[in-house]
Automatic annotation (TrEMBL), chains A, B:
Name under which the protein is recorded: Winged helix-turn-helix transcriptional regulator
InterPro entries per UniProt: HTH_HxlR, WH-like_DNA-bd_sf, WH_DNA-bd_sf
Keyword Disulfide bond applies: no
Top-level taxon in the UniProt lineage: Bacteria
Pfam assignment, any one: HxlR
Domain HTH hxlR-type: 12-109
Gene3D superfamilies per UniProt: Winged helix-like DNA-binding domain superfamily/Winged helix DNA-binding domain
Keywords, ordered alphabetically: DNA-binding, Transcription, Transcription regulation
SUPFAM superfamilies for the chain: Winged helix' DNA-binding domain (SSF46785)
Amino acid sequence: MALGKDYATQECSIARALEVVGERWTLLVVRDAIYGVRRYNDFLVHLGIPRAVLSDRLRTLTEQGILEKRRYQEAPPRDEYVVTERGAALWPALRALSQWGREHAGAGRLRSFRHADCGGDIGPYGTCADCGTPVPVADVVMVPGPELDTAPNDPVSRALLRPKRLLEPLETEPAHLAH
Amino acid sequence: MALGKDYATQECSIARALEVVGERWTLLVVRDAIYGVRRYNDFLVHLGIPRAVLSDRLRTLTEQGILEKRRYQEAPPRDEYVVTERGAALWPALRALSQWGREHAGAGRLRSFRHADCGGDIGPYGTCADCGTPVPVADVVMVPGPELDTAPNDPVSRALLRPKRLLEPLETEPAHLAH
DNA sequence: CACTGTCGGTTCGTTCACTGAACCGATTCG
DNA sequence: CGAATCGGTTCAGTGAACGAACCGACAGTG
């Protein structure tokens, strides 16, 4: 969505949130960032998003303080986009959407989320089903489910086939090993 | 967002959810429906949405089983759009977005959500801060906050100035009493 | 009866955002 | 030297959103 003037008239915190993250692709970029994707090219191949749109979303999210642009190499200059605390705070919303997608939009058991401390499933309210405590995003482990494609053809999807703690950087295979 | 072919390639329940409710305006229509808005004209004046877009969203949401079109008057034929169980299941996602909007998108205390049974605030994980139990959407009361405009000029916003239990139909003033 | 207003839309021309392909500069690898 | 990687920008074409106008069926008023 391209909102601005339209949603701005709405006196509603949901509308305010959607002004920032409601545009097409934006929440999926944040999802990837929380999954540990940090580099332009990884977002690109994983999302299948037009380059111009990705550039725009990364810039906007950085301006909004949801991502942070960080130089990780000087020659040639390369930046990575790391999710900030403000961005990680979107996790409850993403988790709730994920749950709804599983139960009401025909997405089966593609991935599940577990409590890193005890291995318990994370229930409908974001708490651990085993120990009952609310689970902060950094303590969540994403576990691939049985209905996930076992041989995807982009390196990011392949890297996400292994269980992975959220927020930690994703390590993709070097390009020369690609399919 | 108009997704379909694009997000469909994504193996992710978040993407599946956004295929259904990720388009511009859609989540705000669902929010209003959960707030008790049911009639075409009430959505129209409250959202300030173009008529063609509203018609499209109501049709799509009805096809998806998120709203249900229900005849409430025969002459002239009038239908209302009532949120279904599947639609109400989006409440956790909307609540999480609302919370994020309050804390990270500059929306102050516009509205708060309380547990109808005990009056406790609903915390970050959708549970009641007082009694600790998860609160189903039907037991949530929306309470207007101090930063809300006290004299809005559309009847739906005025009706929402009073505390209101979610899902229950919103009663707007008759048109001839308008501003 | 004529007039006005309500309700729930549809139609249409304009504007705006997304799309996909091409291109680019700096650098590294073989 | 030539090819590939990385992180973009530019640009023409398309599709969606926007806003205003219009419309049919009916209710209420005088």
